[in-house]
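Practice problem: PTS sugar transporter subunit IIB
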Amino acid sequence: MNKLNILFVCGAGLGSSFAAQISAEDVLNKLGVQAKLDHCDISSAVSMRPDVIITAENFRSQFEKFPLDPSTAMVYLKNIVSKSEIEEKLTPVLLNKGAI
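Answer key — structure tokens:
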């Protein structure tokens, strides 16, 4: 399989999405998963076609209004920098996508 494309999304596409990306890098390294990581704002995310979008729980209602590709897996986090929460919620997605 090609590298997974994982997109981290927040309101402005700068602060919290980048913080989540940094935390997820450690989790992905621990799991031995190679992925292409990027971060952006919520409005830009709609036009991109990542394999996985990781974002804060408070953006769920906004994403539910967008016509996303059905193959894009959504991961909603209560604490965007919690490595344990990222690992817990991302592992089943990675298994489903054949990355681990």
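Discussion: Helices lie at 15-31, 42-45, 60-65, 83-96. Students who identified this feature from the tokens alone can consider the problem solved.
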